[in-house]
Design goal:
Helix content: 40-55%
Number of domains: 3
Structural class: alpha/beta
Strand content: 5-15%
Number of strands: 18
CATH topology of the largest domain: Rossmann fold
CATH superfamily of the largest domain: P-loop containing nucleotide triphosphate hydrolases
Largest sheet: 5 strands, parallel
Number of helices: 19
Radius of gyration: 27 Å
Mean pLDDT: 85
CATH class of the largest domain: Alpha Beta
Strand order of the largest sheet: 2-1-3-6-7
CATH architecture of the largest domain: 3-Layer(aba) Sandwich
Length: about 475
């Protein structure tokens, strides 16, 4: 549903235009002066602004300027009973889409609005396509020559030509969202939106409002209707990250969307048909969660049409040189364009190759960026790597425990710190950064959890309980 802002100091005209436009299927907001209109423009996006030029002390040209600054793709149609060539030329020079003299024929206004909104849709699509191309989220952006990754690439090529639902699994940091984007931007829907949400990052009430949208008055604070993200992804792809963290209530509603291909906004009984390709990701074992009654079996089978499992970095070490080169190129251009880093010294690479990489590709990216910033030589030296790599925590188990028969003494304190940090990070990842939930998982008090996060300088955006 396209939204229109009507700005005029004449109440009867505002009411007439509201009734007429709503009958045409538009969502309408009104303002009686320029200041009120600018406040609305700052609060929400519009598909078109229809504004009078002279409104007492206000000036419609100020509204035009605000729209051009805050919502540059939104067309503005100017109205006035004081039509002069000068005001028309000034409005058009400042970016107005068109100009209407009062009184005007309703049919002319309707045609003008329809054409203006169609132009905005084309402008939005062009902006989206440019952004997608700049992000370079396509199949070739995934790096790997190992056998596991070649298998993944082959599967991505096959599923990109279909609209089948894909369930992407793998440890945190393995690139699950990148794989989803590779599938989307390699397929027929590449020119349409790719929209994602982390199901573990929001409380249930907020998550459902974001997913399905809501009608005005659906709950306290719902002052205006809102289109949900699934609606926004119509004809494109919707990616449900950390789907294993969705609540039972949300799971039921998602199942309906997948089955019926329709969404129902909160506070509404009207179903809205959508054409959306769904992909989901999780680092949990959903089949085990189904057995433990923690995840709906019917939703699991709806999502798991095409399973895609991303291997951890420790199982594809032969890809390490190519990944290092990739991140070196990125971060050298970003941080040291005048002092390019040529590669990694042999001692540094040997330690990196022996390391377990519990954080996978995300951890490798952070390590390389840090090394590029710190390194004074033309190759990454061992001294620029983090302590856990320098100290030889190499053949570690899943939680970083070195075997007692390794050569040389074990750095016990450093190892324990490393294990604690990984457990903290894993708990935060699984709870979407919700500190109180992560503390419950580790049987810690909220205060103790906060202290340990600060102690280990864990990055990210942990969320406090609301």
């Amino acid at each position: 549903m396209s939204s229109i802002l009507v700005v005029d100091d004449e109440k009867s005209l505002r009411e007439f235009l509201t009734i007429m436009l709503e009958e045409q299927g538009y969502e309408v907001d009104t303002a009686a002066d320029g200041d009120s209109a600018i406040r609305l423009i700052k609060e929400k996006p519009f598909d078109l602004t229809l504004t009078d030029i002279k409104m007492g002390k206000s000036n419609g040209l100020d509204v035009l300027s605000a729209v051009k600054q805050l919502q540059p793709n939104t067309p503005v149609v100017m109205m006035t009973a004081y039509a002069t060539a000068e005001t028309a030329v000034e409005a058009m020079k400042k970016g107005a889409y068109d100009y209407l003299s009062k009184p005007f024929r309703v049919e002319d206004l309707q045609i003008l609005i329809k054409n203006a909104i169609e132009k905005k849709k084309l402008a939005d699509e062009n902006t989206y396509l440019k952004s997608a191309l700049n992000d370079k989220y396509h199949f070739s952006s995934m790096i790997g020559k190992s056998a596991p990754m070649q298998k993944i690439f082959g599967l991505i090529q096959k599923v990109s030509t279909s609209v089948a639902t894909v369930l992407i699994t793998g440890e945190s940091g393995t690139g699950k969202e990148l794989a989803a984007k590779a599938i989307h931007f390699s397929g027929e829907r590449k020119d349409r939106p790719f929209i994602s949400i982390n199901c573990g990052a929001l409380p249930e009430s907020l998550l459902e409002g974001e997913l399905f949208g809501y009608e005005k008055g659906a709950f306290t604070g719902a002052d205006n209707p809102k289109e949900g993200l699934i609606e926004s992804a119509n004809q494109g792809t919707f990616f449900l990250d950390e789907i294993g963290e969705a609540s039972p209530s949300t799971q039921v509603k998602l199942l309906r969307v997948l089955q019926e291909k329709e969404v129902m906004r909160l506070g509404s009984s009207k179903a809205i048909k959508v054409d959306v390709r769904f992909m989901a990701a999780t680092n949990r074992d959903l089949s085990r969660a189904v057995q433990k009654k923690e995840f709906r079996e019917d939703l699991f089978y709806r999502l798991n049409v095409v399973p895609l499992h991303l291997p951890p970095l420790r199982e594809r070490k032969e890809d390490l040189p190519f990944l290092i080169e990739y991140f070196l190129n990125i971060f050298t251009r970003e941080h040291k364009p005048d002092h390019p880093i040529q590669g990694v010294s042999q001692p540094a690479f040997a330690r990196m190759e022996a390391y377990h990489w519990p954080g996978n590709i995300r951890e490798l990216s952070n390590v390389i960026e840090r090394a590029v910033v710190l390194e004074a030589e033309d190759r990454i030296q061992l001294s620029s790597l983090p302590d856990e790599i320098i100290h030889g925590h190499s053949t570690v188990s899943e939680w970083g425990t070195p075997p007692l028969d390794q050569e040389g003494p074990i750095q016990l304190e450093a190892t324990l710190d490393q294990i604690e940090r990984r457990l903290l990070q894993s708990a935060l990842d699984k709870t979407g950064g919700m500190i109180h939930k992560a503390a419950d998982m580790l049987d810690l008090s909220f205060r103790s959890m906060r202290y340990r996060i600060q102690k280990h300088k864990i990055k990210g955006k942990p969320r406090n309980p609301q």
